[in-house]
Design a protein that fits this description.
Blueprint lengths: L1 E4 L3 H10 L5 E7 L2 E7 L5 E8 L5 E3 L4 E6 H8 L7 E7 L2 E7 L3 E7 L17 E6 H14 L2 E7 L2 E7 L3 E7 L4 E4 L2 E6 H7 L8 E6 L5 E7 L2 E7 L8
Antiparallel strand pairs: 1-5, 1-7, 2-3, 2-6, 3-4, 4-18, 7-8, 8-9, 10-14, 10-16, 11-12, 11-15, 12-13, 16-17, 17-18
Helix pairs in contact: 1-2, 3-4
Length: about 240
């Protein structure tokens, strides 16, 4: 296996984002590219990313690979990439070899790890509400809600999308069809801001986000940039009655 990324920034950004949710993962490498599907330790969120083979200047594999990787270790190496640094990824026995190519060639070796987990795939659900929104606007409203509460409510109607949070204080933002592309019936669901605050860091890789949800159903948040996809799935927040 020999992979080369001339501009590894998007890969580094994705690794940094998902490392806040999961630590040990299985990265799959096949002829289509590299991808990852993982579930956080609390079994509340699912994370998926796909980077296609076409994004690599070199993508040579003889067979499909599954790489057990500690993301904290991988993130630490990727932080050593400066603008203009190319990244070479190779597998030798039970080691992941990372080469950083700029003025000099620097090599890192990370031990691959055994990870016991079920194979998961990103669910293909039909959602009642699909909202295409500017990533920065979504970041703003989630951060607003986090000021006043630990959960927020998404409310969608055919011509508007509302995000609101209530504690002792409250926050509310409303988008019309002029500010967001709304494909929706009537939906309402509540979600943890602890997780959403981590998900919205996907705005680093894309200026557009797609938010899909239904009444009291897991939501999906997608960040697309070209053929790269970063997705999150989150279970709804169910309030316990006294």
């Amino acid at each position: 296996m020999h992979l080369k990324l001339d501009n590894p920034k998007i890969f580094a950004d994705i690794v940094t984002i998902i490392s806040e949710l999961v630590t040990e993962v299985r990265v799959k490498v096949d002829k289509e590219g590299i991808n990852l599907t993982a579930i956080d330790p609390a079994n509340v969120a699912m994370i998926y990313f796909k980077i296609p083979a076409s994004l690599f200047s070199q993508f040579d594999i003889t067979k499909e690979e599954e790489l057990g990787v500690n993301l904290d270790s991988l993130r630490a190496v990727l932080r050593r990439c400066k603008p203009g640094t190319a990244l070479v990824i190779e597998k030798h026995d039970n080691m992941l070899k990372l080469g950083l190519l700029d003025r000099i060639k620097r090599d890192f070796s990370l031990a691959l790890i055994e990870i016991e987990s079920e194979d998961k795939s990103l669910p293909e659900w039909e959602f009642d509400s699909v909202i295409h929104i500017n990533s920065d606007a979504l970041v703003e409203v989630i951060e607003d809600c986090a000021v006043v509460s630990d959960a927020c409510t998404f409310i969608a109607e055919p011509s508007k999308f509302i995000v609101e949070a209530h504690g002792l204080n409250s926050a509310r933002a409303e988008f019309s069809s002029d500010e967001a592309e709304i494909h929706s019936g009537n939906s309402l669901a509540r979600f943890s801001l602890e997780y959403l605050s981590k998900f919205i860091k996907g705005a680093k890789i894309s200026s557009k986000a797609t938010l899909s949800f239904s009444v009291n159903h897991p939501m999906r948040l997608d960040f697309h940039t070209g053929s790269v996809l970063l997705s999150f799935v989150l279970a709804p927040r169910v309030e316990q009655e006294d």
